[in-house]
């Protein structure tokens, strides 16, 4: 079928029926005056026909028109051409072929192209040169790289193709007056369905039977057509030549009437491809007679035939009783309804909405410039060695332009350019700008074609080498044209044709400057040789770029435009097509046969370039701002998934109403050049139902100036975007963890399903001790279990962790609570049990709390109250289980005095509002903030500031005047204003950092640098300032190495989130009213740490074999910005060791094994450890002139056995000293408690050998032996 022309596509207003009673036997002839139906001014009698009354609704008019019809006519069709060009309109705007347009990933641009095409079409219609229906767009999936018509499609992704199809249809069809019942022109989505073979190794489209699984049909081939109909409201769908699973698509009632008409509710007509009914009969021999073919097609839902087949054979079908009047009327009504919507029967078009359009509206300067813009946006930069592109027009004195496509004209237009029908040219552009012309406009060029044509049977290597060797730079413009890939022509090889690769390599070898390889093609090419060749410095793919392609290519090469195109299809190696037959329609891989699958969604083999690849002259960073970690899907009570373990649920309307969420991303242009950037949101779903390895959920294009940021928002409909099609063709939502991708960024949609894989050693020596101390040392009333799993078991359903450790080992005197809705997540998200009551029973049976008292909600949610009775009824729980849980809860309430009567008569009964926010409490909050503020850097003479010496202080930054730390994202700053106030001040305080939009519950950071452009602000202000104090307000550490190293930043303070009196506390420290004494309680890592280490790696200890550096100061082996315990004071404190032993002997029983063997450690058990302790006494002297507090850390570096920590904290004491005063600090060290460690099995051990004790720079060596 002849494709649309991206200029004014081929018109097909095929009126297949003869009108009687008023001489309307329409035969479209080419003239410069349009055919006018219902021209009442010329034929007043027509006003008596209702179908000529434009004020009536379409159905009434069509019914009236149908009553006047009889018989079938073969009027119209491709044998009577509708669109032509003349001296009046010699050409129309020619946009890039669709494959390059789709590479823009710009939905608004897709629609705008359709709008321009339809405006030019209406203009030509008004002078008799065009019709009003167009066979466009082609939304077939570009399944195989060899397909000659892949160039006409939006690419390989169903979602992207759907977006393109619906947007382009809207652009063509929607009227400017907003009347949704009328059409500007009529679009047609083709070729329905699973059509993507034209002519490959003797297998042609007319007889090919596409054997397609229902799953592949519904999740790959059908979505673009569905979107055309439902989202685009397209006027027509064209069925294809091929068969699908043994049935011709134009004769399949399930595909046509069943799906298009009934399921999708097409408001329009269904057309055949040209002569497809003839092929169905004569080539496929699907029916015994032509009349049977005609009857089958019309009864299947076909309304219109391109060709003469129905005109020739429908009467015979009627005569044999295979068709009746009702069948004919349905088809006629659908056709004429479309013509009514087009205004075809509304009279003189010059008096209608678009009647003022004419030749002046075709090929306008604006439209031609827009064609250039589309090409620029679509061009894809695939390789760019540093220093290669963009070229400087002033630096390049001579440019060699080489290649068979270097001076291309018609090649840039793609399919159908220059094809004639009965003497009329199907499409001509307004004008051409060849690549050579585009490049010559900027610099002096020397041209050498290098080949006679793209077939390049003999490369002209010597001539090309001569001009290349003499030039400052070389641009090679290679690829294909319609002699290689086109309708009715599929490729056998996907390498560069003929000797093109020989020419490319030869030229690259003799060139002295950068070599730019430009590929002009519809499909991908195996150019791995060029990708790997260091002498080929840049690669561009330009598709077939339309009339202005040469100008667009030059714009990108010379940096007048920053490339932003992304590949809409996978580029495979030649080995793929050598191995995979084009006729295999399976999308999914088959490991049993080695079949690798197709498209990025399923393909498992090597690639040359990936779907979505594309570079820019700028770097763009992504930051996750907002995304949920859990999505819960409500189900009816009787739903089977409540009582059994489901991996997916049906994506039906009742389930899916209003289940959606937002993803917000901050994008920053890190480069020096403004540019556009496409943000792709992918999902990797749980691997059920042969799910894709990943698939596209959405894409957005954003334009950013240098160093600017922007917010990109995605709304994700769970049942639409996160669903997949199962093996039977049913749409399902997979339950479990979906991984969302944006570039290298990954977000796990479900923190509630995270399984923390933790070694027993790490669990017992790192994660458990704080909880153990809470219970044993603090006698805490309650412990809350978490959402996550630990080593495959939910913490709220693990009897070892709850009953065994908390209740049994630690002897909790209180209750155990779940985190909010954690039992619900255990069942619905983790799918840990088969039924809700099993979850309730699992939790409660092991000393879990119950919550069936409506005033006591220790489950933090309704799960137990909803399901505990069912668990009891099923015998999963008994009265004893429930009573134990209730007793623990009530015991706590008893201890709280909840049942002791009037609280006013109890111990704290006299407390009231007067005891809240007291002056003493507020001052204490200020004191806590002062003591916690950490001075991390202080150049001599910087802090403290003198209030009398500082006459003006500039206070700058996003956190300089905060109250709640919920001020939203920092999206920019008035840099010039900041520099102005900074330069005029005696000193500057920059208060930077984060807030709850960056680090909070349900929100983790991807980067640990200062957010957004804060570092730019800091550096810019510092450069113009006399003295700079940087204050960091944050919860976690920041990579501020740049500030630490900058000598102009004289002081750095970390203030955490300092509470209500934080501002006063910061002031107290800066002006020396308080001597800083805080020490940082966490390591501050460099950004390289988080770039390398996944957050999901729970291992504390380093692994030299993988380069994993470990976590926290106890084990981490990499560089730091600041270390745990760092913190300065305005005074100096000296340490002197007063008392410490050098040897500790551990007594053992005579028969102990370590008496007779060389033990590296002994068990830290009660019998061994009784009364084995010693004292460390230190004298601390304050040398400074200012009173202050000082924290003394006592650390130990134990012998390196059992993957021991590098060092660990034994104790700390804070001492307050006046100037030049001394104080004594005492530590009591229990050998088995403080000097022990946990071995690989979780047993606590005391290492034998030398322990090094540290206090600041002071070291003391202690030997422990038996």
Q: Give start-end ranges of low-pLDDT stretches.
A: 1-32, 67-81, 418-426, 846-857, 964-973
Overall strand count = 47
**Overall average pLDDT:** 88
**Major sheet details:** 6 strands, mixed
Structural class: alpha/beta
**Multimeric organization:** single chain
Rg over CA atoms: 38 Å
What is the CA–CA distance across the termini?
A: 92 Å
Helix content: 25-40%
- Count helical runs: 37
Envelope shape: globular
Cross-sheet strand order for the largest sheet: 9-16-15-14-10-13
Strand content: 15-25%
InterPro entries: BXL (IPR044993), Fn3-like (IPR026891), GH (IPR017853), Glyco_hydro_3_C (IPR002772), Glyco_hydro_3_C_sf (IPR036881), Glyco_hydro_3_N (IPR001764), Glyco_hydro_3_N_sf (IPR036962), Ig-like_fold (IPR013783)
Protein name: Fibronectin type III-like domain-containing protein
GO cellular component, one term: apoplast
Pfam families: Fn3-like, Glyco_hydro_3, Glyco_hydro_3_C
Question: Which key phrases capture this entry?
Answer:
disordered N terminus; alpha/beta; five-stranded mixed sheet; globular; 1266 residues; 19% strand; single chain; 47 strands; six-stranded mixed sheet
Structural notes for this entry:
With 1266 residues, the chain is α/β, with parallel strands linked by helices. It is 26% helix and 19% strand. The chain has 37 helices and 47 strands. The chain has a 6-stranded mixed sheet with strand order 9-16-15-14-10-13. Helix 15 links the parallel strand 14 (473-479) and strand 15. Helix 4 packs parallel to helix 6. Residues 1-32, 67-81, 418-426, 846-857 and 964-973 have low confidence and may be disordered. GO terms for molecular function: alpha-L-arabinofuranosidase activity; xylan 1,4-beta-xylosidase activity. Residues 677-746, 1190-1259 form the Fibronectin type III-like domain. This is Fibronectin type III-like domain-containing protein.
């Amino acid at each position: 079928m002849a494709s649309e022309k991206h200029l004014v596509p081929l018109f097909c207003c095929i009126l297949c029926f003869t009108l009687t009673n008023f001489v309307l036997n329409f035969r479209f002839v080419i003239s410069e005056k349009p055919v006018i139906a219902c021209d009442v001014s010329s034929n007043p009698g027509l006003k008596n026909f209702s179908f000529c009354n434009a004020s009536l609704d379409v159905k009434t008019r069509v019914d009236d028109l149908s009553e006047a019809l009889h018989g079938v006519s073969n009027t119209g069709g491709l044998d009577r051409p509708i669109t032509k060009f003349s001296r009046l309109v010699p050409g129309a705007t020619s946009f890039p072929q669709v494959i390059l347009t789709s590479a823009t990933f710009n939905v608004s641009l897709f629609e705008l192209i359709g709008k321009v095409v339809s405006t030019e079409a209406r203009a030509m219609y008004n002078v008799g040169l065009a019709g009003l229906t167009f066979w466009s767009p082609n939304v077939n999936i570009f399944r195989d790289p060899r397909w000659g018509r892949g160039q006409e499609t939006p690419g390989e992704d169903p979602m992207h193709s759907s977006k393109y199809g619906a947007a382009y249809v809207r652009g063509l069809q929607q009227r400017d007056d907003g009347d949704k019942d009328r059409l500007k022109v009529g679009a047609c989505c083709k070729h329905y369905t699973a059509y993507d073979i034209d002519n490959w190794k003797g297998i042609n489209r007319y007889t090919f039977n596409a054997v397609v699984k229902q799953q592949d049909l519904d999740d790959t081939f059908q979505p673009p057509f569905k979107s055309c109909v439902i989202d685009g409201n397209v006027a027509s769908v064209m069925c294809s030549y091929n068969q699908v699973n043994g049935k011709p698509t134009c004769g399949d009632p399930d595909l046509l009437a069943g799906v298009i008409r009934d399921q999708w509710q097409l408001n329009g007509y269904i057309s055949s491809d040209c002569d497809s009914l003839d092929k169905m009969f004569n080539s496929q021999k699907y029916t015994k007679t032509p009349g049977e073919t005609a009857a089958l097609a019309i009864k299947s839902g076909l309304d219109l035939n391109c060709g003469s087949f129905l005109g020739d054979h429908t009467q015979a079908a009627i005569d044999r009783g295979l068709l009746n009047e009702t069948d004919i009327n349905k088809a006629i009504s659908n056709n004429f309804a479309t013509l009514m919507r087009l205004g075809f029967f509304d009279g003189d078009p010059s008096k209608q909405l678009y009647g003022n359009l004419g030749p002046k509206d075709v090929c306008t300067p604006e439209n031609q410039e827009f064609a250039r813009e589309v090409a620029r946006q679509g061009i894809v930069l695939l390789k760019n060695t540093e220093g290669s592109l963009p070229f400087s027009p002033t630096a390049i004195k001579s440019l060699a332009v080489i290649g068979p496509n270097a001076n291309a004209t018609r090649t840039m237009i793609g399919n159908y350019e220059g094809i004639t029908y009965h003497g009329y040219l199907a499409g001509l552009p307004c004008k051409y700008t060849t690549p050579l012309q585009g490049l010559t406009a900027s610099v002096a060029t020397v041209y050498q074609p290098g080949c006679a044509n793209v077939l390049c049977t003999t490369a002209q290597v010597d001539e090309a080498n001569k001009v290349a060797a003499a030039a400052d730079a070389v641009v090679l413009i290679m690829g294909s044209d319609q002699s290689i890939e086109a309708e009715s022509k599929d490729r056998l090889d996907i390498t560069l044709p003929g000797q093109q690769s020989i020419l490319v390599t030869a030229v690259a070898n003799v060139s002295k400057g950068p070599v730019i390889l430009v590929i002009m093609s519809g499909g991908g090419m195996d150019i791995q040789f060029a990708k790997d060749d260091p002498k080929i410095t840049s690669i561009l793919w330009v598709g077939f770029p339309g009339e202005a392609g040469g100008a667009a290519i030059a714009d990108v090469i010379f940096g007048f435009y920053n490339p932003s195109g992304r590949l809409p299809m996978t580029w495979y190696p030649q080995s793929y097509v050598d191995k995979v037959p084009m006729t295999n329609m399976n999308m999914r891989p088959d490991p049993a046969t080695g079949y690798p699958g197709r498209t990025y969604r399923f393909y498992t083999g090597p690639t040359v370039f990936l779907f979505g690849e594309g570079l820019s002259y700028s770097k763009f960073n992504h930051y996750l701002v907002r995304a949920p970690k859990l999505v819960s899907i409500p189900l009816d009570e009787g739903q089977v998934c409540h009582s059994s373990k489901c991996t997916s649920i049906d994506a039906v309307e009742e389930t899916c109403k209003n289940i959606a969420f937002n993803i917000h991303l901050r994008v920053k242009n890190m480069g020096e050049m403004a540019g556009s950037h496409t943000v792709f949101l992918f999902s990797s779903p749980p691997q059920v139902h042969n799910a894709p390895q990943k698939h596209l959920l959405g894409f957005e294009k954003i334009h950013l100036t240098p160093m600017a940021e922007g917010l990109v928002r995605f709304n994700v409909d769970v049942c639409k975007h996160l669903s997949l099609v199962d093996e039977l063709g049913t749409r399902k939502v997979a339950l479990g963890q979906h991984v969302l991708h944006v570039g290298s960024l990954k977000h796990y949609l479900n923190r509630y399903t995270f399984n923390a894989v933790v070694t027993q050693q790490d669990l017992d020596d790192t994660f458990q001790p704080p909880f153990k101390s809470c219970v044993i040392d603090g006698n805490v009333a309650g412990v809350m279990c978490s959402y996550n799993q630990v080593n495959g078991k939910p913490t709220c359903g693990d009897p070892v962790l709850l009953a065994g450790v908390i209740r049994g080992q630690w002897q909790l005197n209180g209750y155990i609570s779940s985190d909010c809705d954690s039992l619900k997540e255990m069942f619905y998200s983790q799918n840990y049990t088969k039924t809700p009551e099993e979850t309730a029973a699992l939790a409660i049976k092991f000393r879990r709390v119950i919550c069936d008292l409506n005033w006591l909600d220790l489950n933090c949610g309704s799960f137990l109250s909803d399901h505990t009775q069912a668990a009891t009824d099923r015998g999963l729980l008994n009265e004893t289980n429930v009573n134990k849980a209730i007793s623990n809860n009530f015991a706590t309430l008893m201890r709280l005095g909840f049942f002791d009567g009037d609280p006013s008569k109890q111990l704290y009964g006299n407390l009231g509002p007067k005891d809240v926010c007291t002056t003493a409490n507020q001052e204490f909050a200020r004191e806590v903030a002062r003591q916690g503020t950490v001075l991390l850097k202080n150049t001599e003479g910087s802090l403290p500031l003198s209030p009398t010496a500082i006459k003006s202080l500039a206070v700058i930054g996003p956190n300089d005047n905060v109250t709640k730390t919920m001020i939203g994202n920092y999206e920019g700053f008035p840099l010039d204003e900041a520099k102005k106030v900074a330069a005029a001040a005696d000193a500057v305080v920059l208060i930077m950092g984060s807030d709850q939009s960056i680090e909070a519950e349900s929100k983790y950071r991807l980067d640990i640098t200062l957010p957004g452009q804060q570092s730019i602000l800091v550096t810019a202000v510092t450069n113009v300032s006399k003295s700079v104090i940087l204050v960091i307000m944050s919860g976690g550490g920041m990579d501020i190495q740049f500030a630490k190293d900058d000598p102009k930043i004289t002081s750095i303070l970390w203030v955490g989130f300092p509470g209500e009196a934080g501002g006063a506390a910061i002031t107290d420290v800066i002006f020396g009213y308080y001597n800083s004494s805080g020490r940082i309680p966490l390591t501050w890592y460099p950004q390289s740490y988080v770039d390398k280490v996944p957050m999901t790696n729970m291992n504390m200890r380093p692994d030299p074999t993988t380069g994993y550096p470990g976590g926290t100061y106890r084990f981490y082996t990499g560089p730091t910005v600041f270390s745990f315990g760092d913190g300065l004071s305005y005074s100096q404190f000296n340490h002197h060791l007063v008392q410490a032993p050098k040897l500790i002997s551990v007594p053992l029983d005579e028969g102990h094994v370590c008496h007779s063997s060389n033990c590296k450690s002994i068990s830290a058990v009660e019998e061994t450890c009784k009364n084995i302790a010693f004292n460390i006494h230190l004298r601390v002297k304050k040398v400074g002139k200012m009173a202050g507090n000082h924290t003394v850390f006592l650390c130990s570096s134990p012998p390196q056995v059992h993957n021991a920590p590098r060092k660990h904290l034994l104790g700390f004491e804070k001492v307050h000293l006046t100037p030049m005063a001394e104080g004594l600090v005492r530590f009591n060290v229990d050998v088995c408690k403080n000097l022990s460690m946990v071995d690989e099995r979780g047993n606590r051990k005391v290492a034998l050998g030398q322990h090094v004790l540290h206090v600041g720079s002071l070291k003391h060596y202690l030997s422990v032996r038996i």
